[in-house]
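Example record used in the benchmark description.
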Amino acid sequence: MSCWVVPAIAAELWGVTVDRILAGVRDGTVPAFTENGFVFVDVAPSSNTPPSSPPASLRPPTYVTVTRDADEVDWVVRPSAGPIVSPEEAALLLGGDAAPPEPELPPLDVEEDATPLPPRQMVRAAVARLRTPPPRRRD
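Model output (structure tokens):
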């Protein structure tokens, strides 16, 4: 028995991305039909399985290999395929004292001033005094 749902629901059920579902619809591996401009895919248990993951060689690296040299005390970061961690982040991770500079705040605008806001409780009390209660019901 068929069970037709939109690609976003199929992606949730199968645990894959919507792009992978739509790619399966385009290449014909996922049964689908279009009705009134909406795409529906079949997620019934007897239907095709979800699109498979891309091969490991096509997946982007999601980790950094960290090793410790035997003759050195420091850890050495060797990216697996391209820099994932910036040099500043690597210095911080490795215990370096190179902290990123904090951005300076721009000067205050004409509408802004340096006066602090009053405490929250005072503002709430002032607003509560101005509030009028709803009219009483007469039964």
